[in-house]
UniProtKB/TrEMBL annotation:
This is Large ribosomal subunit protein uL22. Signal peptide: none annotated. The keyword Cell membrane does not apply. The lineage of its organism: Bacteria, Candidatus Desantisiibacteriota. GO terms for molecular function: rRNA binding; structural constituent of ribosome. Belongs to the universal ribosomal protein uL22 family. It comes from the Bacteria. GO terms for biological process: translation. InterPro entries: Ribosomal_uL22, Ribosomal_uL22_bac/chlpt-type, Ribosomal_uL22_bac/org-type, Ribosomal_uL22_sf.
Amino acid sequence: MDIKAQIKFANTSNRKVKRVIDLVRGKGLDESINAVRFTPFSASKLVFSVLNSALANAKHSNLNPAKLYIKEIYATQGPTTKRFRAGSRGTAKPVRHKTSHLTVTVTERGGA
């Protein structure tokens, strides 16, 4: 049984999130949570949050947490909000606030 957890419209670019999720793809869920907890990137908090959400969803579905592993994890680009900031000589400089969507799918090892 596949369990899914996702965070949408996170205030981090998907490029920064992909650095962290590449470390945990295909590993066990407990191992991944510990690895992300001690990773020094800013997106680690976001990935840690979605992994804990997936763990809670799996416990709610009566799955064994020790057998869970990350079947699929990916980050996609969300909408970009565009703002302007004052520049030199009275000009306006564009500022883009990037967002991302993060999705995790976990399942038990050995089928079922």
